[in-house]
Specification:
- The chain is an alpha+beta fold.
- The protein has eight helices and 17 strands.
- Strands 1-2-12-3-13-16-14-15 form an eight-stranded mixed sheet, sandwiched between helices.
- It starts with a helix and ends in a 7-residue tail after the last helix.
Length: 354
C-alpha cells in the first residue's frame, strides 16, 4: 500500500459516518475515485457511484462496499444536562461504558464521555451490562438548558478513537466495518480502470447497510448491473477468545475471503477462485448457507435477481472501537476484484445450468 492509498484509508477511518449521516465520508471517497472515473454521481440518499465505461455489449460489474458505521444517537436530554442514548445499528452495550465520544451537531463536534459508575461504588454481586438506552453521555453541561444549547435530539454520536498501527501490517481503528470495504472497492476500481477492461465497471459506496441494507436496495435497483460484488468484513476468529462453536478458520493476513452459498452465485464464486489461481493469490473460503449479512443479500434479490458475490476482509473484534485488520488482506481483495472485473466479459452470461 503506497502513501496515497494509506492516506485515503486513514481519511476514511477518521471521518465519522454513522448510518444516516454518511455525507462527510462519501465526500472523501468521491474525491479519491473521481481521478480514475469517467463519471461520478450521487443519489437522493447519498449512495455514491463511480463509472468506468466499457464496451456497450459487455457486462457491467459493480464492486461495492458500505460506507456507514454503527454508532449512537441522542435520544433525549435530561433536565440535569445528560444525554440519553439510542443505538444506530448493532452497537455493543458491553464496550460503550467509559468511552470518550464525539457528538456530531450542526455546529460541529461536542466532546463527551459515556458515564460509568466507579468500581468502588458498584455492587459487584449484581454487576451486569446496562442496555444502551440506560446509558448516558456527560458533556459537562450545568443543566438541561445548557445541554440543549449544545446538542439536539437526533444528533449522532461516535467513539473518539484514533487509527493505530500495530505490528507488521496490522491496524486498529473503529469502523473498519466497513471503510475497508469502500477502500477496497475504490482500489479495485482504480486497478480495473487502468487495465481498461471490456466490462463497464462501477465502484459503489452504499449507505445505511448497518440498519438493513437500505442503500444497496436503492442502488441495485437503479444500476441493475449484470454482476454485483459486495466487499465487507467477516469475523477473524484467530484470537484467544475466538468461540470454537462459531469459529470459521478465517485468519488475518491469509488473503481475501470468498463466500459460498445463499447469495453467492456459483459462477461468480468459480470466477473469483479462478482469478485468484491465475494470479497465484491466496483466498480463504467461507460458508454462508443462509445469508451473508452483507449488501450481497440485497443485490441478489433486486429486480429479477442480480448475480452477486460477497468478498470479505478478515476483521478481529467487529463492532468494537478496536477492530483489527491486516492491510495485506485489503490489497489481496482489491487485486482479486480487479481480476474478476477484467475476466467478467469472458465469463458472462452468468446463469445456472439445469
Amino acid at each position: 500500500m503506497d502513501d496515497d492509498q494509506r492516506r485515503f484509508l486513514d481519511d476514511l477511518l477518521s471521518t465519522a459516518t454513522p448510518s444516516g449521516f454518511e455525507t462527510a465520508g462519501q465526500r472523501v471517497w468521491l474525491d479519491y475515485v473521481d481521478e480514475f472515473a469517467d463519471e461520478t454521481r450521487v443519489d437522493a440518499y447519498g449512495n455514491a457511484v463511480a463509472v468506468h465505461e466499457g464496451d456497450p455489449d459487455a457486462p457491467s460489474v459493480a464492486v461495492t462496499g458500505h460506507c456507514d458505521e454503527i454508532g449512537l444517537m441522542v435520544r433525549d436530554i435530561t433536565d440535569d444536562g445528560f444525554l440519553k442514548l439510542s443505538s444506530i445499528g448493532g452497537s455493543d452495550r458491553t464496550v460503550t461504558r467509559g468511552q470518550n465520544v464525539h457528538v456530531h451537531t450542526d455546529d460541529g463536534v461536542v466532546d463527551g464521555v459515556i458515564g460509568q459508575v466507579a468500581i468502588h461504588l458498584r455492587d459487584a454481586t449484581t454487576d451486569e451490562y446496562a442496555d444502551i438506552n440506560e446509558q448516558y453521555v456527560d458533556v459537562g453541561a450545568e443543566d438541561g438548558d445548557e445541554a440543549r444549547e449544545l446538542v439536539d435530539v437526533g444528533d449522532p454520536i461516535t467513539f473518539d478513537t484514533e487509527v493505530r498501527d500495530l505490528r507488521g501490517d496490522r491496524v486498529a481503528a473503529r469502523g473498519m466495518d466497513n471503510r475497508v470495504g469502500i477502500w477496497t472497492a475504490a482500489e479495485a476500481f482504480r486497478r480495473a480502470a487502468e487495465s481498461d477492461p471490456a466490462a463497464t465497471v462501477y465502484a459503489v459506496s452504499t449507505v445505511q447497510e448497518e440498519v438493513g441494507l437500505k442503500g444497496a436496495k436503492m442502488v441495485g435497483f437503479d444500476l441493475e448491473p449484470d454482476v454485483a460484488v459486495a466487499v465487507d468484513v467477516t469475523h477473524a476468529t484467530d484470537h484467544p477468545e475466538g468461540p470454537g462453536d462459531k469459529g470459521s478458520g478465517i485468519e488475518l493476513g491469509e488473503g481475501a475471503v470468498v463466500s459460498r452459498g445463499s447469495a453467492n452465485h456459483p459462477e461468480l464464486v468459480a470466477l473469483a477462485r479462478d482469478a485468484a489461481a491465475d494470479d497465484d493469490a491466496d483466498v480463504q473460503l467461507q460458508a454462508t448457507g443462509s445469508f451473508t449479512g452483507t449488501d450481497a443479500d440485497a443485490f441478489y434479490t433486486t429486480r429479477g435477481g442480480i448475480p452477486s458475490l460477497n468478498v470479505a476482509i478478515p476483521n478481529r473484534y467487529m463492532h468494537t472501537p478496536v477492530e483489527v485488520v491486516d492491510l495485506a488482506d485489503l490489497e489481496s481483495a482489491a487485486a482479486l476484484l480487479a481480476g474478476v472485473a477484467a475476466r467478467s466479459a469472458e465469463a458472462a452470461p452468468f446463469g445456472v445450468d439445469i
